Structure formats: structure tokens, C-alpha cells
Amino acid sequence: MKILIIEDNPSLRETMTEFLERERYxxxxxxxxxxxxxxxxxxxxxxxxxxxxxxxxxxxRILEELREAGKHGNVIIISARDAIEDKVKGLDxxxxxxLAKPFHLAELAARIKSLIRRRVRGGERTxxxxxxxxxxxxxxxxxxxxxxxxxxKEYDILNHFVGRPGLVVExxxxxxxxxxxxxxxxxxxxxxxxHVKNLRRKLQEAGADIxxxxxxxxxxxxxxxx
Length: 226
Fold this sequence. Notes:
Arc Repressor Mutant, subunit A, 2 domains, about 40% helix, Rossmann fold, four-stranded antiparallel beta sheet
């Protein structure tokens, strides 16, 4: 899961980044409106933590740009400004939640998990495709009730695909989602091929009836055996 932190306070931004990385999220950040606007235009995120007061613009404009682009960023507004009009406007523009500063990091993590569970998994704790079940909160995978040991990147790849069954995911998009936005500058995607190959082998050996199918020249898609 990839998160974008839009926050101009360097200390808070660093604290949030370190905490969320320990929670096994891929974290990108932006300190200004201009950098944030560029990132949301170029990349997709599973959750955006949005400060309203930015040095070069109003963070609520990011919500407008997401809506205009047809993107659903799963946005949580994080701001010291607790005026009711800011909260109402943000929610009207498409924000999903609002958290006023100061806040506990544990509450932030809980809000993110709850939001992703509602928007990505329909409120369910686990995701089940065929005989494969994934518990994103516990980072665990089972096949027909039996646990399957995956590396962190193998798990992250599978978790990315279970929310997009049957959809082709390009190699660039997969690299950005699992390794971060800087991955779009790499010369080749051999590192993805290696992790996907290992993941496919482990799923096959466990008797999974789902498969990551290679789409030549594009990427991969998750399919369920008929």
C-alpha cells in the first residue's frame, strides 16, 4: 500500500514517514502544494494524508484536482485548522476523513486501515479469491486454510493485485506501488520479474487456484482458475 504525505512541517512529516514505514507502507511525501500537485497528477496512491495549510497554496485544491482527474485518492485531511467550514468543504470535495492536529500516530494508523478496508475491501477484514485468503492487517496469506510464507515484496505484490482482480497492471505501475515513485526511473524491471516468479512458484506449490498471468509487453494480471 502506497501513501502520500502532504505536510509542510518537516518534523511532523519525518515522524509520520518513519512511523508508517514501520507499519509496512510505501511512503512518499510532499512539502509544498506544487510538489503535491505534480505527484497526484503523475502517480496513484492508496491513501493521501493532506494538510490544508501549505506555503504555496491551499491543500483543498488537491481534492479538486483529484476529482477533476477522476482519481479516488482515499484522502484524510490532517490539519490544525479545525474550523467547521474547512472540514465540511473538504468532505464535500471528496475527502474521506478528517483528523485534527495534534493526534496520536496509533489513531492515524487506525484511520488509514479503516479507510482502506472500507474503500478497497468493502469493509471486510480479509480478502478471499478462490482458495486464497489475505489478511492485510496481519500481513498473512493462506491457501485452503494453510499459511504460505512470502517475503515482504512478494506479499506486497500479491496484496496489490487482489484489489485489482482481472485487471492488467503495467510493470511501471506495479514498481511504483510496491517500491515507490522513484522506481519509474529504473532502466529495466528485472527485479519485478524475480519477485513475481518466486510468488507464482509459491502459490503454485501451495495449490492456489489463482495465478499472476504475464501479459506480454505490458505487465501482469491476477486470474482465478475456472
